[in-house]
Amino acid sequence: GNSVTQMEGPVTLSEEAFLTINCTYTATGYPSLFWYVQYPGEGLQLLLKATKADDKGSNKGFEATYRKETTSFHLEKGSVQVSDSAVYFCALWPGTYKYIFGTGTRLKVLA
Amino acid sequence: NAGVMQNPRHLVRRRGQEARLRCSPVKGHSHVYWYRQLPEEGLKFMVYLQKENIIDESGMPKERFSAEFPKEGPSILRIQQVVRGDSAAYFCASSPQTSGQLYTEAFFGQGTRLTVV
């Protein structure tokens, strides 16, 4: 079956620190992979995506590479800001109508 | 160029009341999906609808919950006799009908936060 596993939070970092949020998946076939961000009190925003192996998605300084050999899609950012504080969701779309979401990782960035 | 529009953004209901959540899909999209996010959890699939048809409601509680997507107007998720455990964020997503692929990537709305007091 399809599943997504994210590292548990909360993750607390100082401003300008390097961020990694781990995400691994299991899937049949060749899914697309996504990172969504949810700011406090807000809805879901698509942050980046990758549709096939070795693709790199990037947006707002965040990056994630679709690694088929390790079934991973880790989110990284070289220098986080206070405004990056949010909950980050890794998600998988297996090409059907159901998205599979991870449980979310809360990031808190301290000034 | 509006995306998926959900309203209200926030809804407060007393126990036993009804909650109606509305979702207007992206213009031209004929597939609608509802997801629920319980506190501190990820989003879970509830139901998939096409115009006037429920395709898959396997993720929806059997009692008190219903969904529709009429020929005209928005999709409605209806929760009767709400209880505190229904407090959650409810997200709607939509995708277009295509002639090539069976399914395409969906676009998510901002969600409705339901609080039951």
Give the biggest beta sheet of chain B: 7 strands, mixed
Gap from first CA to last CA of chain A = 41 Å
Give me the Rg of chain A, rounded. Answer: 13 Å
Oligomer: heterodimer
**Structural category of chain A:** mainly beta
- The total strand number of chain A stands at 12
What is the general shape of chain B? globular
Report a brief summary of the structure:
The complex is a heterodimer of chains A (111) and B (117). With 111 residues, chain A is mainly β.
Commentary on this structure:
The complex is a heterodimer of chains A (111) and B (117). By secondary structure, chain A is mainly β. Helices cover 0% and strands 50% of the residues of chain A. Chain A contains no helices and 12 strands. Chain A has strands at 3-6, 11-14, 19-21, 23-26, 32-38, 45-50, 56-59, 62-65, 75-77, 86-93, 100-101, 105-110. In chain A, strands 2, 5, 6, 10, 11 and 12 form a 6-stranded mixed β-sheet that branches. A 4-stranded antiparallel β-sheet of chain A has the order 3-9-8-7, with no helix packed on it. In chain A, a hairpin with a 2-residue loop joins strand 7 and strand 8 (62-65). By secondary structure, chain B is mainly β. Helices cover 0% and strands 50% of the residues of chain B. Chain B has strands at 5-7, 10-13, 19-24, 29-37, 43-50, 53-56, 65-68, 75-79, 88-96, 107-108, 112-116. In chain B, the strands form 2 sheets. In chain B, strands 2, 4, 5, 6, 9, 10 and 11 form a 7-stranded mixed β-sheet that branches. The radius of gyration of chain B is 14 Å and the shape is globular. The model of chain B has no long low-confidence stretch (mean pLDDT 91). At the A-B interface, strand 10 of A face strand 4, strand 5 and strand 9 of B.
